[in-house]
Write a structure and sequence with these properties.
9 helices; 31% helix; 240 residues; 3-stranded antiparallel sheet; alpha/beta; 18% strand; binds carba-nicotinamide-adenine-dinucleotide; 6-stranded parallel sheet
Length: 240
């Protein structure tokens, strides 16, 4: 049987589906991932991308951080693709209980998903590190250079988890709850090398595990079905 039909059958049979995804879910929306051939880690910058996206670097060199962050990440945030749209549709059908994402682009919400657990936060939320005033993504995009607070002129930072920072406990606990109570887990567009996010899938204890990723991952051996194709194409063909 072809893999699309197999996956469709699993989705039909499941009552509680969770989707766990990463940057590969948004590459078909034009947002580069980190580790693909053309991903951000393959480009030459003044500093390695992992260094720039660390908490230590952010507070020491906000100019360089924002230069990279604005031109290489948030500039590309555009429109949801068929993966985001199909996952929102599955939630409306009462099949999908949660999307757990490592992405910070907000495209799942834009597509209409409501239970989105953002492991690494969101570029759509920003706040002043001194007084806590909130700012939109637009504010950050439109400010030249480093965004500063209108009230106290302090640094505004994205509500994203930078390297060296911890994931929020409530985000971890809701992910564990969703993963340990679903019967079908679909993992897609993630290299599964970023921890602790990748370790969360160990909490899955349900019937079927599906992996949709262009490349091999360390969890391939755990999967009941592996589809090594662009995930947007897979969801389009599913025709949910
Ligand atoms: P990654 O390490 O870059 O891995 C992406 C994986 O997806 C790779 O294995 C690719 O082969 C695969 N892939 C790429 N495109 C597709 C596609 N169309 N269909 C199927 N597979 C595809 O990214 P991870 O998410 O695993 O790493 C976690 C980091 C990346 C998180 O901290 C994110 O915040 C961060 N990130 C997020 C965004 C975003 O918000 N859109 C963009 C870039 C990086």
């Amino acid at each position: 049987m072809d893999k699309i039909r197999l996956l469709r059958g699993m989705i039909e049979k499941a009552d509680r589906i969770v989707f766990f995804g990463g940057a590969g879910v948004s590459t078909e929306s034009g947002i580069p991932d980190f580790r693909s051939d053309k991903g951000l880690y393959s480009k030459k910058y003044k500093y390695p991308a992992e260094t720039i996206l660390s908490s230590r670097f952010f507070y020491k060199n906000p100019e360089d951080f924002y230069d990279f962050y604005k031109t290489s990440i948030i500039a590309y945030i555009s429109k949801p693709n068929p993966s985001h749209i199909a996952l929102a549709q599955l939630e409306r059908q009462g099949k999908l209980t949660a999307v757990i994402t490592q992405n910070i682009d907000g495209l799942h919400q834009m597509a209409g998903s409501s239970n989105v657990i953002e492991l690494h936060g969101s570029s759509h939320r920003n706040y002043c590190i001194n007084c806590g005033k909130n700012y939109s993504l637009d504010y950050v995009k439109k400010t030249e250079g480093v965004p500063r607070c209108e009230l106290c002129n302090s640094l505004v930072r994205p509500d994203v988890v930078l390297y060296g920072e911890s994931l929020k406990p409530e985000v971890l606990s809701s992910s564990i709850e969703a993963l340990s109570t679903c019967d079908l887990l679909i993992i897609g567009g993630t290299s599964l090398v970023v921890y602790p996010a990748a370790a969360l899938i160990e909490y899955f204890n349900g019937e079927k595990l599906v992996l949709i990723n262009k490349e091999h991952t360390s969890k391939d051996n755990y999967a009941d079905l592996i589809i090594r194709r662009p995930i947007g194409e897979v969801f389009s063909e599913l025709n949910l």
